[in-house]
Structure formats: structure tokens, C-alpha cells
């Protein structure tokens, strides 16, 4: 690797084991998957782990050995936070309308099962994350190792499947999830102390978190939820990711691949 881009095994601890784990996963994922000659359009996801993906790509941009190629990269965001990550790292911003075909996308996940099926949407960005990730030829997950399910989705992530819905449909969708799809618990996600009332997504919609317990058949559950009137998208990402990088606080990274 060229001078200028910090070597992974020489990185100093950030003083927070979880952040060290996230950074380890993200840096390894970028270094092993970003092909400077082939990849021109890059999807940048949302959340706290993907911060280190944008940072790593930014390091390559500022290294004279790579800057000719990296300055031509166009990065496609998955929401407001992601857009700022791109700008803060001085990367070139593009839109999915301009670049409907993405070469590679990186994003975090809330849970990853043994078949690389995902729950996403903990940060309420699931619609644009799905738009970007399913437009990408290669989709790579970066996460700390807590996100790896021992088997099925719904084991570690107990908050429920995030579902983006049209605001006026929230009562109808809530009832349908409980009565037709037998969800155990359904909540309209609230802004908490930061906002009185529901979270409003980047697309001006609401988020429902629907707990189905352990999910044995995520594909069918996704299809059934999508058929409900009012549902825009689900946080079940089916057959979408090709690899997941799970970081540990000691810098070790495990890679799960299809
Ligand atoms: O799906 C997401 C946002 O909608 C995030 O990618 C997911 O919540 C993981 O975030 P983090 O990297 O902070 O754990």
C-alpha cells in the first residue's frame, strides 16, 4: 500500500473497542473489494460503521498514488447522513437518478444470518439503502461481530423488522401486521427525546418496527409484508449482499461469503 494510506495493522486504537471493531471491518472491506480501475460508481450506506468506509476511500483520494483514479469516483448516498459522509470526505457526490447502475456498494446491517440475508433499517434509511444496494453489481456489508446471527434473523436484533410506510396508512398497516401476518409486537418508531411523535424518514414516511420473533423464512415474510397496502419497503434484504465483514475490537475480521 502507498504511503499516505494508513496500514491496517499499524492503526492505533480509537480508545473504544466497538469503534475499533467497526473500523477494522470497514477498512478491510474497502481494501479487499474496491477495484480502482473497474469501480467508478460507489454506493455509500448509512449508520455508524459505514463512516469508516467513506473515511477509508477518502484516505485513498488524498494519496497521490491513487488520487487520479479515486478523484473520478462518483459516490451515491443512501440518505442525508450518507450524503454528508461523502461530502465531508471530499468525495464526489452523485445521485441514483444520474447513475442507476452502481459498481459496488458498502453498507452496515442490523443483523446478518447464516445465508447472508439481512435486517437493515435501524437508522431509518432502508428504502434508499435498498434502492442503492439492489442497483449495485456487488454489495458488501460492514459490521461489528455482534451483528452476526448464530442462525436465523430475529435472534440478535430484537427490535423488529423495520418497515417504511406511507404515514396515512399506519393504523391499517399495524392492524394487518398483527392480524394477517401475526406479528408479536408492532411499534411506530418514535423520535424519543429528539422529536415528539414518529420518526420521519428522508422520504417523508414513517417507520414501523414489527417483531416476528425468530424469522425462519425471511424471503416469504418480506413478500407478505410488501403486499400490504401502505408499505413502501421492508428492512429484509434478501439475496442482496455478496459478502459481510465482521470486525472485532482486537482488529480481527471475519468474512462471510456466498
Ligand atoms: O440499516 C441501517 C440504517 O438504516 C444501518 O446500516 C444499520 O442500522 C447498521 O448501522 P450501524 O453501522 O450504526 O450499526
TrEMBL record:
Pfam families: Rib_5-P_isom_A (PF06026). InterPro entries: NagB/RpiA_transferase-like (IPR037171), Ribose5P_isomerase_type_A (IPR004788). Signal peptide: none annotated. It catalyses: aldehydo-D-ribose 5-phosphate = D-ribulose 5-phosphate. Keywords: Isomerase. CDD domains: RPI_A. It is an enzyme of class 5 (isomerase). The keyword ATP-binding does not apply. The keyword GTP-binding does not apply. Pathway: Carbohydrate degradation; pentose phosphate pathway; D-ribose 5-phosphate from D-ribulose 5-phosphate (non-oxidative stage): step 1/1. GO terms for molecular function: ribose-5-phosphate isomerase activity. GO terms for biological process: D-ribose metabolic process; pentose-phosphate shunt, non-oxidative branch. Its EC number is 5.3.1.6. GO terms for cellular component: cytoplasm. NCBIfam families: rpiA. Belongs to the ribose 5-phosphate isomerase family. This is Ribose-5-phosphate isomerase. It comes from Saccharomyces kudriavzevii (strain ATCC MYA-4449 / AS 2.2408 / CBS 8840 / NBRC 1802 / NCYC 2889).
Amino acid at each position: 500500500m502507498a504511503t499516505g494510506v494508513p496500514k491496517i495493522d499499524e492503526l492505533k486504537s480509537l480508545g473504544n473497542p466497538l469503534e475499533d471493531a467497526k473500523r477494522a471491518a470497514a477498512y478491510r472491506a474497502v481494501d479487499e473489494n474496491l477495484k480502482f480501475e473497474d469501480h467508478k460508481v460507489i454506493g455509500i450506506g448509512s449508520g455508524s460503521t459505514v463512516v469508516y468506509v467513506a473515511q477509508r476511500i477518502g484516505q485513498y483520494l488524498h494519496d497521490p498514488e491513487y488520487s487520479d483514479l479515486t478523484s473520478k469516483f462518483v459516490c451515491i448516498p443512501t440518505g442525508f447522513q450518507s450524503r454528508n459522509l461523502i461530502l465531508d470526505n471530499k468525495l464526489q457526490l452523485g445521485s441514483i437518478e444520474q447513475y442507476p447502475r452502481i459498481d459496488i456498494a458498502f453498507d452496515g446491517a442490523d443483523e446478518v444470518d447464516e445465508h447472508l440475508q439481512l435486517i437493515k433499517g435501524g437508522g431509518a434509511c432502508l428504502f434508499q439503502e435498498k434502492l442503492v444496494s439492489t442497483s449495485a453489481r456487488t454489495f458488501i456489508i460492514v459490521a461489528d461481530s455482534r451483528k452476526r446471527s448464530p442462525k436465523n434473523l430475529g435472534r440478535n436484533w430484537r427490535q423488529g423488522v423495520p418497515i417504511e410506510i406511507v404515514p396515512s396508512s399506519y393504523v391499517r398497516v399495524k392492524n394487518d401486521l398483527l392480524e394477517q401476518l401475526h406479528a408479536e409486537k408492532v411499534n411506530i418508531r418514535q423520535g424519543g427525546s429528539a422529536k415528539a411523535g414518529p420518526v420521519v424518514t428522508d422520504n417523508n414516511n414513517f417507520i414501523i418496527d414489527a417483531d416476528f420473533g425468530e424469522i425462519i423464512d425471511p424471503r416469504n415474510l418480506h413478500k407478505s409484508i410488501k403486499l400490504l397496502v401502505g408499505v413502501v419497503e421492508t428492512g429484509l434484504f434478501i439475496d442482496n449482499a455478496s459478502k459481510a465483514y465482521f470486525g472485532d475490537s482486537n482488529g480481527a475480521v471475519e468474512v462471510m461469503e456466498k
